[in-house]
Amino acid sequence: MGSITFSHVFKQYKGESRPAVNDFHLSIEEGEFLVLVGPSGCGKSTTLRMLAGLEEISAGELYIDDKFMNYVSPKDRDIAMVFQNYALYPNLSVYDNIALGLKLRKTPKYDIELRVNRVAKVLEISHLLDRKPSQLSGGQKQRVALGRAIAREPQVFLMDEPLSNLDAKLRAQTRAELIKIQSDLKRTTVYVTHDQVEAMTMGTRIVVMKDGVIQQVAPPKQLYDEPANLFVAGFIGSPQMNFIEGNVTLEEGRYYFSNKRMKLLLPRSYDSSFEKLTRAVRNVILGVRPENVLLKPFEPDDDDENGFAMSVVQMTEVTGADSYVYVTVGDSKVIARTDPESIYLKDDKPAIGFNMGKLHFFDVSTGVSLAAGGDGG
Ligand SMILES: Nc1ncnc2c1ncn2[C@@H]1O[C@H](COP(=O)(O)OP(=O)(O)O)[C@@H](O)[C@H]1O
Ligand SMILES: [Mg+2]
């Protein structure tokens, strides 16, 4: 129970020139924790609201457990939704807020009591049941909102940025609890966030959206290691992946990446990807994550031959466990993650190199990934 299928779903708001959701086509498995992530305005909430029945579907079909849902009213969908602003009833006690959905469904009184007490215990809000929402902190309100959704024991949970009003510490804590609750209850959950860290830590599968269009659907690690295009590569990961423009050339049977400042001999593991390319798409953007950028003191024999170029340090950011060194290489800005023991000061000129097995190459004109992590990881 609780599998969901979107078949080529579109949403076009009246008077808008382009669809808010454009050909959303995806199946969600029973029990899955699916996260929709993307920048503000990319169509996440609209997608969720169509699933809840709060927004009409302009074209395409929606199925829950193979039942056609397009015209089924929200109350008949066996779905509970948790919103960013909690949406609690101010005049009702915590107990009654949690119990309300059950009362409306004519659940027997003893059963309501049992369920409310059970979720209150799980969420550690048993001592708050007599209070009114105005007597609660933000974190407590969000627990009550979650409790109300959980008590109903629906087939599907929908959550739209439920943690975004909490401070960082409480957000991390509630995030961990949500993961645990979801894995205990094993109910299909569709969770919306604009925060890529939240997406990466919570989702078993992540859908990255931009301008109403799905960019990639993958488990977190795959999204990080094999982003399908420049947008996903830049959106997932912090600090973000470095991008350097250049060309892929073939010389005496070996592939090189080069621009005015660097010429890198690429490992043979990339060969099969580059063999498929026509000359026209050999204008590329090289992508490399900060943890795969190497800095070291420049030595006389550091040149093209061994894959190092000279860089200039702009600034260093110390976070505690790591340092991030911002350098320029010609026109390109690059961030390197280094251990905090190696100290780089502004205008230092270290040699910069890359972990050659961990490079990404994207088509300059389309942004599509041409090759990633030649060593397979
Ligand atoms: N009721 C509405 N009428 C017209 N346009 C809307 C409405 N709701 C959302 N939009 C537009 O649809 C797009 C997607 O919005 P939304 O789904 O809320 O994005 P997200 O949740 O990813 O921030 C945005 O361009 C937004 O301005
Ligand atoms: Mg939204």
Automatic annotation (TrEMBL):
Keyword ATP-binding belongs to the record: yes
GO cellular component, as recorded: ATP-binding cassette (ABC) transporter complex, substrate-binding subunit-containing
BP GO terms, sorted: carbohydrate transport
Listed InterPro entries: AAA+_ATPase, ABC_transporter-like_ATP-bd, ABC_transporter-like_CS, ABC_transpr_MalK-like, ABC_transpr_MalK/UgpC-like, Mo/tungstate-bd_C_term_dom, NA-bd_OB-fold, OB_MalK-like
Keyword annotations of the record: ATP-binding, Nucleotide-binding, Transport
Gene3D superfamilies xrefs: 2.40.50.100, Nucleic acid-binding proteins, P-loop containing nucleotide triphosphate hydrolases
Molecular function as annotated in GO: ABC-type transporter activity; ATP binding; ATP hydrolysis activity
PROSITE patterns: ABC_TRANSPORTER_1, ABC_TRANSPORTER_2
Keyword Nucleotide-binding recorded: yes
NCBIfam families according to UniProt: PRK11650.1
Protein name: ABC transporter ATP-binding protein
Species of provenance: Cohnella abietis
Gene designation per UniProt: msmX_3
